Structures are given as C-alpha cells and as structure tokens.
Amino acid sequence: MWKKSKVTDQTAAGQAGIKKKSKVPGVMITQFQEELPEGMSTPDFTRKPIALTIQEGKTAIFKSIVVGNPKPTVTWSRANGEIVFHPDVCIQKYDESSNEHTLEFPKVAPDDADTYKCFANNEHGRAICTVVLNVIAVGFSKTKELQKVQVEDTADFRKKLKKRNPDGTREEKAMEPEEKVWEILLSADKKDYESICVENGITDFRGMLKKLNEMKKEREAEIAEFVSHINTLKHIEVNDDDCATIELDLDLKDPASKIFFYKDGVMVPLTKEECDGQKHSLKQIGKKFVFTIRGLGKDDAGLYSVDVGGCNVFSTNLKAPDVEFAVKLQEIKAEERQDAMFQCVLTAPYDDLKWFGKKAPLTNGKKFEISSSEDKLIHKLIIRDCVPLDAGIYAAVAGVKSCNNWLIVEADKDPKGKKGERKSTMAGGANSEELEKIAKEQQERYEKEMAEKIEKAKQAQAERELADAAAKLESEAAKKDAAEANAAAKAAAKAEAKAKKAQKIAADRAAKEEAARRRAGEGGADGGAGGAGGAGGAGGLDDGLDEDELSNSESDSAEGGPAGGADGAEGEGGEGGEGADGADGGKRRRKKRDGPLVPDTVIGDEDEDIDEETAKQRGKAARKGKRAKKMLEDGEASAAVGDEDEDIDEETAKQRGKAARKGKRAKKMLEDGEASAAVGDEDEDIDEETAKQQGKAARKGKRAKKMLEDGEASAAVDPGVHFHAGLSDCKAIMGEAAELECKVSSEDCKGIWYKDGEEIKTDAEGVTITQDGSFHRLKIHKVTDEFGGKYKFEADGRKTEAMVVVEDPPRFEAEDLETFKTSVTVKKGQKATFKLPFVGRDPIKVQWYLEGEELSEESNIKIEHTEGCSRLLLTKLQRKDSGEVKIKLKNEFGTVEAFSQLIVLDKPTPPMGPLEIIEASPSVLDFKWRPPKDSGGCKVDNYILERNQIGRNTWKKVGLIGPEAKYRDSDVDHGRRYCYRIRVETEIGTSELMETEDIQAGTKAYPGQPSAPKVATAFKDCINLTWAPPSNTGGTNILGYNLEKRKKGSNLWSAVNPPEEMIRSGKLCPVKDVIEGMEYEFRVAAINNSGAGEFSVSSEFVFARDPKKPPGKVIDFKVTDSTYTTLSLSWIKPKDIKGEEDEAKGYFVEVRPAENTDWDRCNTNAITMTSYTAKGLKSLGMYWVRVIATNEGGEGAPQELDNYILAMPPPVRPRFTDVKIKSFMIVRAGNSARFNINFEASPWPEVTWLKDGVPVTKKVTISNAEGMSQLLIPSAERTDTGIYAIIVKNIVGQESFSIEIRVTDEPKPTGPVDLDENVPGTVTISWAPSPDEKKDDRLHYMVTKRDSHKRQWHTVADRIFNNKFTACNILPGREYQFRVYAKNDMGSSKPSESPKWLIPTKKEKFTVNLAESKPCDLQCAPKFLIPLKMHAAPQGYECYMSCAIKGDPTPHVTWYRNNISLNTNTNYFISNTCGVCSLLILRVGSKDSGEYKIVAENPLGRAECTTKLTVRE
User: Fold this and answer.
1) pLDDT tens, residue by residue, 1380-1396
2) CB 607: neighbour CB atoms within 10 A?
3) Counting runs of H as helices and runs of E as strands, what totals does the chain give?
4) CB-based burial of residue 343 (10 Å sphere; 0-12 exposed, 13-18 middle, 19+ buried)?
5) pLDDT, tens digit, for every residue of 615-629?
6) pTM of the model
C-alpha cells in the first residue's frame, strides 16, 4: 500500500492536499480529495525523465509517460529562469502512439544546463518529478568565438548608442533601422520577442537573446546611476481624444535630473504644462511621469524614447496604419431598457479597432457587444439594456485616428418608480444597409488602390532595371571611348617619334654611304655588318615610314655588299614579319596596331586560398613570360646598340645581331598576330591563302602575347607562401597527447616551429615535428606543465600563432573505473566499501551521492580522502539503502563522475493479494496471488503454504510448492471453506505470512436480484409489468422468474404464478388477478439451475384502474417574492374536468434564462404544494418561468408568466434606516474617524462619498457592504475637517445625507496676560491669542478669578471670542489674580496667569451721617437698552447677535426665528449674562436666514426686538 500523510496547506480553494509516494522513485503525488470517485485516479509517472550529461551542440531529449483518469496535462519548468519555447531553442512534443511527452533541445547550449521539473495535472491531483541537464563544453568551439564576436559587436553597438553630447543629450541624427530594433527589444515584453523578430527578419533567435541579455545588463547598470526604482512602464496608448500617452513610475535619485524625449533618435521639445498649442507635453505627479502627444497624425509614427540624464530608460513604438474613418459615429438617442448601436466605416480593413466609453476602454461582454464585418470595414458597438447611467460620449480609435459622439438615454417617466419592460427595438441600427453600401464602395476603392500601387511598384522596378542597364551601357561606352582616345593619343605620339627617328636615320644613312665608298675595297665583312645593322635598323623602325622611304631604305641596304646581304637574309626583317631574306622581310609590312603591347592594368592573384595546382601553373606561366620578355628586351637593346654604335667590331656585331634577331622574333610573333587579326577584320577582299597565313600569324602572336601577359601578371602579384589554415588554440589534458596543425599553400615550403619565442628543434624531447605535403604538424606525446605556452609556425616570412593551455581535470584510470562500476552486494546489517583512485590538479572537491542525495559524515557513513584516492564506508546497511552510488570530482578545469550500484540483501516482504480464484469446484481449488513487492534483492526460491479448514483450529502444512505464485489444491471437500497462509522463501530467509480470505469448494451459485418491476400499463382488470434480468446469473442460464404481489397496507405477499409454472420472460408480464380500485406493488425473483435467487426491490404502488387524463394548466400563476438569487412562486390547483382533465397530483417548475432556448427543471420529483422557491439564480438575470401539472396520466400543458422576471428584490428607493444619525462629529487629530450608516435600496445602489462637494481622496477608505457603508479616515488631520456627504443612488431614485466632521486637538495656551484699569472698580484683562485661533473657528476663551479674600478660583466669563474682558466689582484692598484658558470642542488648554492686581485702601476718618431713609422702588418693566442689529453673514461662518435688556424683576428672555422658539434648539448657543443677551450660530447655512426676534417678559410687562439675518453664498 502507498503511504499517505495529511498536510495542512491546501493545494487549491477547498481542496485538502494528501501527499502520496509513487511506485516510481523520485515522483511526488499530491491528491486533492480524501476519496476519489470510482474509476478516477491521480496523475502518476510510469516513466520519468532521465538526467542527461551531454556535449554542447548535441540534441538533448527528456521523455516521460504519465497515466491518470481523466488524462493529465503535462507542463515543464526550470529552476533558474523560464523555458523559451522556440524551434531553434526548445520544443515540447507529444506522441499519441507511444503516449510519450518529450522536451527537446535541438542544439543544447551551456545556458540550457539547469534543473527541470515535469508537472502532470488533472482535477484529482498532481504529480511532480525533477531531472538535471548538464552541458559539457569540449575543446575549441566556433560558437564561442562567434559569441565573443557578438559580445564585441554588442559593445560596439552600445558605444554607438552612447554617443552623447556633454549635457547628456543624444547626437542630432536619425536612428538606423538596426538601432530601432534593439531599442524596441530592450523595452518589450518577453512574449513579444518572437513577433518583433519575425517583423524585422531576425532568424538567429538564440543569438538575439544572448545579445539582448548582455545589452540589458549594461542598461540596468546605467539606469541605476540615475533611477533607484522603476515601478510601472506602460507602452504608448492611443486615447479617444486624438492623444497618445506614455506612463512611467520612476524613483529618481536626483530630482533635478533632466528628462529628454526623442522620436527616432531626434529630441522632441516638451512643455511642463498641458496646453492646446503644444504638440508634446510632460506631466509629473509625484513619481509618475506622463508624456502626451496631441493631434495625432501619420507623421507621429515612430520610435519614442525616454532618457533620464544620459541614459535611455524606456522605448516604445507607435504605429500609424493607413486607415481613416469613411463614416464616423453618429449621435444616438435611446429609450431606457432599449439597446443602442454605434457603427462606423473605415477606408481600409483594420482588425485592431478599440472602443471607449466615457474615457474608459470597453471589452466584449454582456453589457457591451463588439463586432465587425468579414471585410473588417464596418465596426459595431452595441450597448445592451440602456439605463440613464450609460449616457455619455463613446469613441472608436483606429491607429492614430478617432471619432466620437453622444449616447443620450431618455429615462422612463413612470411615477410609481417601477422598472419598465425590456424593449426589443434597437436605437441607431436604421442605416445598416447604407453603411454596407459605403463599405462595399470602400472595399472596391481599396482593392483598386492596392492594384494601382502594385502596378506602380512593378513599373518602378522595370524603370529601375532599364535605368541600370542604360547606365551600364553608358559606362561601357565611356570606357571604350576613353580607351580609343588613349590609343589614338599614343599612336599620334608614336608616329611623331618615328618621324623624328626617320630623319635621323636618313642622316645616318648618308654618312654610312660615304663611309661605305671609302671601305669598298676592304671586303664584305664590314658591309655585312653594316647590312645587318641596316636591315635591323630598317626592320625595327619601319612602322612610321611610308613606301618611298621604305624603298630607299631597301636600296641602301642592298648596296651594303654580298656579305651584308647574306647576313641580312638571316634576319627576321624586324617588325616586318618572317621572310626569306632581309629585303623581303622589310617589304612585308603590317597594319599599324593601336594601344600598347602590354595591357595598362595587370590583374594578379589576390586570393590567398588558391589551390596547389593553380599555383604551379601560374609559376610556370610566369617563368615563360619572363623569358619571352627578356628575349624581346635583349633583342631591342641589341638593335639599338647596333644603330647607335658604329665602331663595334665584327664579332660584337654578330652577337648583337643574333640577340636582336631573337628579341625581334619574339616581338614580331606578337605583333604579327595582332596585325593579322586586324587585317582580317578590315580587309574582306583578301584571298584564301593570305587569310590562312594571317590566321597562323594571329595565333602565334596571341600565344606570345598571352605568355607575356601571364608572366608579367603572375610576377607582379605572386604572394609566395601563404596559410590555408592557421593554428588554433588548444586545451591539452595533463598526461595525454596534443597536436598543433596548420596548412600552407606549397608542398615544398619548409617552416620553423617556435615556443614562447624560442625555436623548437626537430630532435626536441617529447615533441615530434612532421610534414605531410602542405600540412605541418607538431605533436606533444605526453603533456606536462612545461609544454604550456604560445606556439608559432613561420614559413617564408608568414607566421601563425596559437596558445596551448595545459589543464589537469580530475579523471580516473580505466582499470580503476571498471572495478568501481562493479556492483557491491551485502547482506542487511553488514558494511560496504567503495574506493576509487583518481588524478588531477589540487584542490579537488570530492562528493559522494547515494540515490542522488549527497552523503556527509554520520554514525554509519565515513568518508576518507587521501592523496589521489577517496573511500566511502557504509555500515549497518538496510534494504532501503540500496541504490546508485556516485562519486563526483571537481576542480578548476572540470568535473567527472563515476557510478556504481549498492545492493543490500534482506528477507523478502510477504506476498501480495488479493487472491485470483481460477477454479472453485467441488473437487479442486485453483488460485494465484501476486509476488512480493520486494524480494529482498534475491530471486524467489519457494513459496511455503499452510491450509486451515474453516471451523477447525489447526493449520495443515502443505510445504514447498516452487517459485511460481499459484497453487492447485485437489484435496478438498465439497461445500467446505478453506483459508491459506503463504510465505516467501529466498536464500536470505523467509518472509512474514499473508493470510488469504475464505474460499469455498463447489459453491452453489444462485442468481442475483433482477431489477425492480416497472408498470408498463395499468387497467381496472389487468396490470402489465416489465423488468430486466439480473446482471449476476450464477454462472448458468436464467430458467425463469417467480412474481409476487402485495396490496397496499398488507404484509402478506402472494404468488402471481404457480410454483411449477415459472414466468419465462420479463419483457411484458400481464397480472390479471387484480381488483378494481385497489393499489398493488410487485417483486420478482430469478431462477437458475441452483434454484431461485433473492427477490428484487419492490415496484412502485399502482392502482388497478383505467389510465387517467393529464391535468390542465394551473390557475393564477404569479411571483410572490424575489431576491438576487431566489424566486418565490405560487399558483392555484387546476380544475378537474371529467373526461378531459383529471386531478393534478404534483407539479414541476421550469425556468429558462432569456439568452437560452432550453428549459431547466428546478425539481426532479413532482411537488404537491402549490408554491415553490427557485434558487441558484444569477443576480439581475432575466428568466422565463412556467409550471407543469402532472398526474398518473402524464404531464399537462405548461402555464408561463406573461413577462420575464429579473432576479432581484422588488425595487426600493434608497433610504437611510438608522433611527438617530449624528450630523456632527468631533475627532482628535491623529485618531481615526469612522462613520457608519445603514440604508436599504433595491436594486443594489451606487454609493458615492463627497467632501465639501468633491469626491473624497484616496486617503479616505470607503467600505460598502449589503445595506451599509462606512467612511474611515485612518489618521485624521485638521485638513480633513469638512462636510462629508453620502449619495445612495439606484434606478429608482437617490438619497443623501451630510455629516460635519471636525478634526481638532486640545488648544495651545494663550500668550501673556496683561491687566489694566480703565474705569475705577474694574480691571480689563487682555491676552495674546492662542496659536490655534486661526486653525479653529470654534475656539474661545474662559477667564477665572481668585482674590485674597476667598482664595478659590471661580469662572467670571466664558465663551469669549475676542482677546479682552473687563472684570467688574474690583474692590480696593484685595489682591486679585486672573487665569485665561483657551477652549474648543476637545477641551481646555493650560491656563495663562496674569500678574497680581492690588488697589491700595485709603484710610480716612470714618464718619457716619445718618440720613432719613426714603423708600426706593427699583421695579420696572423690561426695556431694551441696546437693540439688535441687522446681520449679513457669509455661508459657513459664525454669526453672533447680542442686545442689552433692563428690567426688575429679571425678565425671562425667549429667542424666535420666523416665530419658532429657539431656546430648546441645540444648534444655537443662547446666553444671558447681567442683562446682556446673546445668540451664537457656529456655522451659518441657508436654512438659518430669516427674521429673528427676542422677547423679554416679567410681571410688570413685555418687550420685544427684531432683526433680520441674510446669508451670503
């Protein structure tokens, strides 16, 4: 069984979490319910993901299989960060055929290394398992190099962004597209990354994330210099008033930091105040900054950035789609309870239109229905069930364009205040057909414009292509013209040079003729030399001569003598071509060629990556070209020398002549080829033979020219040896081999290896230097620390370098590792030892794990570390300690792990039940059971059985039965019951026993119970019954049934069929032995070969009478009461019409929500009462209700209410229910002010609190509950003083109440008190006012007096509202002292005492003169000495009225306002001190205006005085 443990925390609302352990180790299951429904189960893993250690760049896959009913959903998460699901990063899949859930990493990266969790959830529970992914980075990685480059690129890019002016502003230039994309990504949400990348063509998603993370870290560091905290960053939002806003909550470190606003990298001027004339404004409210853009247009689209100081904080993109309003919103007038519809038409399809109602965004719901046409041109907003509160301005916003208009709701004029019926008409939907027509026109216009734009784009593309082609042709023509002009200039210069040279030749020739005559008799040697020279000179320079000059030159040469002619015949004839003799060669002229012999520009091989064969061919061509060029130069030089130097000897002349002939031959081959080609092009009338000769000459000339040009070009740019592949940095493992390799362009190249600047000899110890063709290798046989450093290979002046870093990670010897992998098997209670040597550079951290949990030193765990070895000793082992043992070594160079298995042997657990009975016959019991859950690590050798016959106390030993978990017992008696004990035996021991349940041999199997009989039809002389056969037939066929009946009220069952005549089928059984009018019930029993089984459950009672007619409709169906969730109904029983409608026996109540078409039955069983309360209704929901009467004849016709019903109490106008409500409250400053008020209203009203006519601030907490509202000021201040009003309003009406809350504190004492005697016998006390006098308009003063005679303080004046008081009856000779108190509603201040006052007594001689006493009568009627004055007081201020009255006896004074006595009104303060009567109104209101009268009465008379009070607003 699984272990269960209750936990106190709840996994969900109302769900108790029960932790369960799965059969698969490492899986934790949480069950949400105490008991699961039948057939349901919690999720579980049958295969959990396996931990992976994989090389970087490979594919990593986690696989899992989960089970559960209902089918669980599988999700994945990681410990650090979130999983980025992208085809290039991570993919989650599910294979339905194998039920495998996979998490796949196509190219795993080091950032993917983490601990991952797999969750399987369904409604009954959750299963969790964890798995670890380790990523190994091996050797040189191009990806890492690319990452380095990306980091460098990121740094360079950030430097570009950081280019700012000294005041922190950006440089005034537009942003590049790349800069905009990164600015958008830096401020975007993660969920928007993919769409931004798709929109801007970014394909390397993983590279983008890495680059973005680097930029974010740097940006956060920059922001931290200026901003301490950022709370909210709201992207740009377009409002319904053609404005767009950007909101930021920033906690600036320096409030004086400058804030800049940019659009596409260009600063935008801002104003601090919102005014219509300025486009952009900035408003600061505390820490909240709001940027506003007014008058939006298409030009306002772009990237907006907010900078603080010199740092970018936030960027957002404003898009302006090309869309306008073709038809704007129209004003709509709707009646109350009617639907209203706004419609608008756009010029282009747009799917992201936003609706606003009274400045608030609207969403699709029950109240507001938002829809659009299929072409996205017509957009609609429907306001359901309009009430007066829905009236206001509604707006539609499309991109940066908006339109708005009014919704006017006319309230129902129902004097009773009842809510009217819902109207089925809709306001504002009359012009739908016209809008559709306009939308169709806009659609056609839009499609036409799009087609025109596409056509224009195609034309523009074609024009661009034509323009490019024309520009290319013009460029080629210009190049050709320039080449022709250059060739013409060179030809002209050459012709001029030849002309000058011809003149010189003529002069020289004349001199030679003269010299020849003188040497005529000397022989032919000199003549031959002269002839050779002459032939050479003529042949080399005849390009510029005409025919006459050439003929003269030929005749002169012929005169040179036979020897000279012979020598000349051996020459080539200079430029004239190949001839048999010099004369013929001189006659063969070629057409003058244009341009230089060698091209102006020689293009060499600039690509260092040419292959070896190409290099060889170019080298040969270069050598051939050099030879040809040298022959040409030598020949020309010889010819030139022959012309200029006449005094050379014969031998020199012969040598020079040969050289000249060789050089001229090469040059001639080149020029003749060009000349022949040119002649072939220009002269069409040449014969065939001439054409052939010209073709051969052209080919020869072209070959010579190509050999020359190739040689010169190759010689000009021959790079020599270069590297095809350089050295790469290498991480070498200590003790292993390492190799450096590079490839050069030549196989014949030799090079030198260096280490840290020193040459490495070929015979160096531990190193082998080899060359294989163009590959050069340096191999280190066994790496040690001394081999680390910088290596360099140098060849032919070129070099390449690389670093060899020697690492010494921890590692194991192969033999030791194989030994460690061998499983260790021990018995329970014994000890196990694991030991593994290792090598590696210290310090090395050694960790041991058992089943994934790290081991530490404990009583039964000892870990010993020695140099190069670690040992784990486990003692007192238990079976549960079996599992995987892992050792993990780690140092600065890497990590290595090794695994082994620990198997602890123990006795097996008992076998598991329940038994599966294969056969239970009278002679044989054959059964099997399940093997033990844990065999103790050993195979099962035998099962040991004992048997007990029920009723006996002894157990019989059956013995060993073998390793199979089944047994066949043939030694049984028929009808006896047996019980078995089973134990498991292995080589370690025997398990505890498992006792089975009782098994009976040869049991009679009676059939089960059939279903309860059902009445098919009933008549006065027959009742037809049906029933279903039993599900348990007892293993044999059902032979028949026995049927019994019983009258209602009787205990006696009687058989319907005789015992020997069983009923064969239960499909339709008639019972005819019935009495009309009696009520019966029936039961049935099935019969098989064993006999009759148990009787079924009784049927329902049924009358033996003919079928009844269904009842009619109920009468007077009405609603008696309703709440927000219930509806109380009542009706009168339908009439009984004989032969048509019978008496109703019960009723069904059905309700139907207004939005549905199906009726829901409230009661499953018919009710007999004629009243019912339907529960579970939705608040303010509309329902249709009906009642159906029913009886044995069926259901009658339904009776519906005439109108739908709202789920709400009857409408009640708001009213306050408190008997006494305080209208004035005094609160001490610093204390909380709390005011509760109770009310009743239906439907639920809207409660609003105002302070002095303005909505209360956020400081005041308003709590509303059903029938109650509370106002709470947590810590009241004097500024909270005011009149607070509550307005309770619903659709029926509204009610309000006001309370004045005065926040004050005990007043501070007055200033110094001064005494002064203005009139003898009086003292005038004056004092400096209290500091609180200006703050508290109800503050007043009290004066007390003490004299030297009485020595007690008593009050002489109170409620003094000025700073002076005159005390009377000051007697000489007594010492007086006064105290002044400041008083308000909270109490009195500390007293301020006056100095002592004493009037000295003048002692005179006392003389008594007795005069005749005369009676004096002072009684008089009341008389006003000072009458009342007229008063005009501002509203909210105090008003003080006073007058002086004389009368004896003291008259009784009564104040009146509008002839109503005020003496008992507590809102007025009335006093009468020594005939001075006063009336004080603390806070004057409009209700206080009127006529005031004071009446003084005594027995002698009556006097009155009146005045008027006018209240100014």
Assistant:
1) 999 988 889 999 999 98
2) 9
3) 13, 98
4) buried
5) 444 444 444 444 444
6) 0.30
